[in-house]
Amino acid sequence: MKIGVPKEIKNNEFRVAITPYGVKELISHGHEVFVEKNAGANSSFLDNDYKNEGAIILDDNKSIFDISDLILKVKEPIEEEYSLIKDNQIVFTYFHFASHKPLLDAMIKSNSVCIAYETVEDNNGSLPLLVPMSEVAGRMATQEGAKYLEKPMGGRGILLGGVSGVEPANVLIIGGGISGTEAAKMAVGLQANVTILDTSEKRLNELNELFDNKINCLISTKEIIENEAKNADLIIGAVLIAGAKAPKLISKEMLKSLKPGCVMVDIAIDQGGCFETSTPTTHQDPIFIIDNVVHYCVANMPGAVPFTSTKALTNRTLPYLLEIANKGWIKASKDNNEIKTGVNVINGKVVNENVSKAFGVEYHNINSLI
Questions:
Q1: Most exposed among 72, 110, 215, 353, judged by the fewest C-beta atoms under 10 Å?
Q2: Is pLDDT at 169 greater than 80 in this prediction?
Q3: What does pLDDT average to over the chain?
């Protein structure tokens, strides 16, 4: 199979979809890999690194799309890439369709096969290709939150861990999954006062054990969210429903009751955000302020640490990529249910139920198409 790796062109997206080691593995299985010039430079992987492993370097993204059977990306195609995608071409990337209907419409029109990292689901219900970026985003959420709590950045002017004789900041994390847990690890490490909310009592018990009862674990309800948010200096939204829009857990009206200079970091912004006032931002212009509350809603947080993120992503995606490349997407989907759950769009038909519900688009059962 001919596999193309274009350079990411989303605002301040510094990751690349695969490391040179990953290219080596693909080529060892008989595949051809085409990498756009300088695609990996921002992740500290140079063209020569890819060439040394057997990749062919092409000068522009049009050439990559023209020659490839499978396009491997990190982020969803943006508008200027829509027309480059061909009939029956496989696109394997993070799509997050539920947050952007124009993207879904464009991929339906392209007649391509869209396999989304974020909906690949294993037998335990976990999302293995979200895990590495959720880990990065969770850790970054606390790191960025601490920065924007500084007064020159628009925050309350509070040090996350406090100092002797001065109380630490209160950190509220909504969602106890991968990203929420990683955010909590960082916040606890900085000696903040941490509260995690989750709807699963079982998960809260696991978190209590993990953190040796050093954090507050509460069942997430509307009333508890409102009460805890009022006392928080930093609020991290880390709620995800695979393929679906994130639920809105903090309303615009609630902002008036929050502390002036409170910072809200929305990790779920790729899926539409879990705060009503969230809108996507970029690393170039990461925050906005509403009712004296700082909103950090960068849609590609892990892109700021591309060396770490690219290596972590390749570690997880490579086994699936090899199976798709070796067998073709149809046989791979039949043989591996995890890959099947990742398929969102097939030749103009939406086959992910949550994506279809997000915009009222007709749903097709994938089993009738493969």
A1: 353
A2: yes
A3: 95
Let me know: does 214 contact 236? Beta carbons within 8 Å: no
Flag whether pLDDT at 242 surpasses 80.
no
Catalytic residue among 31, 96, 100, 295: 96
- Residue 241 pLDDT > 80, yes or no? no
Contact 18, 72 (CB under 8 A): yes
Distances from the Cα of 310 to the Cα of 14, 42, 43, 103, angstroms: 9, 10, 7, 24
The number of angstroms, rounded, from the C-alpha of 192 to the middle of its chain's C-alpha atoms is 25
Alpha-carbon distance 347 to 88, whole Å? 7
Question: Is 270 annotated in the active site?
Answer: yes
Enter the pTM of the model.
0.84
pLDDT over 80 at 147, yes or no: yes
> Which residue in 198, 233, 266, 270 is the catalytic one?
270
Q: Where are the domains of the chain?
A: 2-126+306-368, 131-304
Q: State in words which class domain 131-304 has.
A: alpha beta
Radius of gyration for the alpha carbons in the chain, expressed in angstroms and rounded: 21
Helix/strand/coil for 204? helix
| pLDDT > 80? residue 243 | no
Tokens of 194: 């941490």
What the block records as the tokens of 217 is 């674990």
Q: Which CATH code, of 3.40.50.720, 3.20.20.140, 3.20.20.70, 3.40.50.1820, is assigned to 2-126+306-368?
A: 3.40.50.720
283 is catalytic: no
Give the separation between CA 348 and CA 368, rounded to whole angstroms.
Answer: 14
Handedness of CA 335, 320, 280, 278 (dihedral sign): positive
For residue 271, give the amino acid letter. Q
- Pick the more confident residue, 36 or 130: 36
